[in-house]
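Quick one: co-fold with magnesium ion.
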Amino acid sequence: MYRPNRIVIDPVSVLADMKEKDFERRLFLFEFLTRMKSWNLLVLLTGEFTIESLKESPLGYLSDAMIHISETITGDKSERHLIVVKMRGRKYVQGRHSYKISSHGMTVFPRLLPELDINRPASTLRVSSGVEGLDRMLTGGLLKDDVILFSGSPGTGKTIFGLHFINEGATKGEPCLIISFEEWPQKIIRNARAFGWDFEEHQKKNLVKFIYFPPALFNADEHAVMIKEFILKNNVKRVFFDGVENLIIALSDAIKRREYVHSLVDHFSSNGITTLLTNELPELFGTIRLTIEDLSGCVDTVILLRQVEVEGQMKKALSILKSRGSDHDKEIREFEITNKGIEVKVAIKGYENVLAGMARKPPAEIFREMFGGNQ
Ligand SMILES: Nc1ncnc2c1ncn2[C@@H]1O[C@H](COP(=O)(O)OP(=O)(O)OP(=O)(O)O)[C@@H](O)[C@H]1O
Ligand SMILES: [Mg+2]
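Sure, here it is.
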């Protein structure tokens, strides 16, 4: 006689539906499942149920494990999720996980959890950002496990700062990862070449890897699994995540977005990785605010980049807003993008309102210029 090890009944609800009355259906399922349990087989049942209806059904209390799968549609994007409702005798990760069905079958992407080791060490080692003047402003460079955010309006040089940072690491033989939503690998390679940085060579030597996802195709759990696997395999030392604000479009659920950003950067830090994030500020002029409010708590250093109008000329300015665990330069400094990359220059002195984008001399200074003397 053929004795299988596994049985799949797909869907089990059809068998129960053959009974007319609710009471009969419950009784049928009860008898069916208790008999099956005595066979000592692995049985997989499927059916269309809600989590609530299962809790009241014999299927709910007689099964050893219950997994609820569903598909949600947000805008034009459809996402599949899986929740372990019950799992007897073993631990499992709670919450919603993503899964994908493709020609390779089904792939599950467990959700990213925050690091739980509160006693993990914190590094005192410094690493270079690649920009000498910025290292000086940060009293010797970045702390090795820090998360640094460059925030600025479009065209202020955020991506170039990031590429500088990665080129520095890859040149020293450190494996690096670039995560982007806007610029795809070949475009980054081309743009870097203008500064004499050979990212194609870094890529060939397996020192730079790109993970590029257009926001419309983004799936947070899949992205996180891909990043974690790469970090584990390649002993990554530096990560550059360009355009974090794209997550607002890519991941519309604000809670999930916050969880994703926090657990990802936490994962980088606890693996001793230096992380550089960039975030676009919407206004060219005006008040400063971080677009992704979720970011403020999880970054150690915040650097603001601005285009500033100084006496009719547009200049680029940089200032360190905060730097946890170390002293830093408090000046607002001018910087220039040259064909060798970024060069930090002198402090912009004698002006106020610089970070709002419109530098102007204080009234006392104007008075002195007009009438001379010490006002
Ligand atoms: N080869 C180059 N030489 C000198 N300056 C350059 C060169 N390439 C770009 N720039 C300057 O850098 C700016 C773009 O820098 P970058 O791409 O890093 O800005 P960004 O802040 O990342 O912009 P976005 O928000 O659009 O992504 C340009 O506006 C230009 O001023
Ligand atoms: Mg950019």
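If it helps, The domain at 6-109 is CATH 3.40.50.300 (Rossmann fold).
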